[in-house]
Structures are given as structure tokens and as C-alpha cells.
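testing teh design pipeline on a random one, pls ignore if ur not involved
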């Protein structure tokens, strides 16, 4: 971390971009080097260069989310997703209800098509997730994302799993209002 924090942005950009086309480590070649350098500096200064110190000594999931939110390039989605992963990894924090659904395009699409949320902003979906599962709204994230990636495609929903025989029908097939007579 110390070495990354001291590396010039141009060198980091070159490493992230790769030598040949298609070798880039990330799609945000211009932004990521700055985020990486700043994140490394925060890790060194605030957490002794060890990322696991971010959640060490946190009492609540909200504290973890707040700490992660300090890092450049990490927004609500990534902070909540990281807290969810820590929870799944059996870290013992209080207030798991503070972990909310990590909203991305796949999650938004499923919530829109199913009518689960009327306000499709990130905050709107997060509020609805709290209403639906107040004890742990973040638990709705992975299943929703999986459905969005696997069946509820942007251009055409694959409710019956016709595009790939091995995955079968969407788990929401019998309850999704989108299906209706046109899909039957």
C-alpha cells in the first residue's frame, strides 16, 4: 500500500491500461489510478496499510459502511455490498439492518419490471427494501442482482429460460406481473 500511495499517477495509469489493447485491468483507466492512489494513502494513514483494519473494531455494520464510503470510487452500492460480504463471511457486527440493497442497473430493472418499487432512484429502492425487509434489507440484493443478470435482461426478459437451457425459468416466473398473457 505504501508503494502504491507513492507511485505517480502516470505509472499507475500505465499499469492499469496494460501493454496491448484489451489488457486493461479496469474500464475506468483515467479515474482508477487516482482512486487507487488516494485509497492506498488512506489505508496507510488511517489503517496501517491493512485493508482488514477498515472493519476491525467496528461495532456495527453502519460503521463499516461509513468507513468504506470515505474511499474514492466507493459509493453506496459498493459499501453496502462489501458490508454484505463481510456479513456472509460471518463477521459479528451489530445492526445488520443497516446493510441495504446494493443498487445497480440489474437490480433497478428487476424492481421496475416487477413493480416492487415506484421510485427507481437508488434511495427509493433502498427505502422500499427497508419497508419489505426491515431486519436486513441487504439480503434482497444478491437474489435480485442474480435475476437481473440471468433472466431479466435489458433488451428482452428471458422469463422461461429459453435462451439458456441449463438455467431454467426465472425464480419469479409465477409472481412477476410483467409476464402476463403476452408471455404465457
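output:
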Amino acid at each position: 500500500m505504501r508503494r502504491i500511495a507513492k507511485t505517480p499517477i502516470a505509472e499507475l495509469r500505465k499499469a492499469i491500461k496494460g501493454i496491448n489493447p484489451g489488457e486493461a485491468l479496469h474500464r475506468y483507466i483515467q479515474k482508477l489510478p487516482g482512486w487507487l492512489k488516494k485509497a492506498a494513502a488512506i489505508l496507510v494513514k488511517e489503517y496501517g496499510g491493512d485493508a482488514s483494519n477498515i472493519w476491525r473494531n467496528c461495532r456495527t455494520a453502519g460503521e463499516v459502511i461509513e468507513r468504506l464510503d470515505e474511499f474514492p470510487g466507493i459509493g453506496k452500492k459498493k459499501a453496502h455490498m462489501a458490508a454484505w460480504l463481510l456479513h456472509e463471511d460471518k463477521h459479528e457486527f451489530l445492526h445488520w439492518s443497516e446493510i441495504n440493497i446494493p443498487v445497480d442497473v440489474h437490480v433497478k430493472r428487476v424492481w421496475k419490471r416487477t413493480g416492487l418499487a415506484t421510485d427507481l432512484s437508488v434511495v427509493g429502492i433502498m427505502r422500499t427494501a427497508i419497508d419489505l425487509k426491515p431486519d436486513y434489507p441487504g439480503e434482497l440484493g444478491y437474489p435480485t442482482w442474480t435475476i437481473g443478470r440471468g433472466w431479466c435482461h435489458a433488451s428482452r426478459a428471458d422469463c422461461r429460460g429459453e435462451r439458456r437451457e441449463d438455467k431454467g425459468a426465472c425464480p419469479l416466473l409465477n409472481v412477476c406481473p410483467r409476464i402476463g398473457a403476452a408471455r404465457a
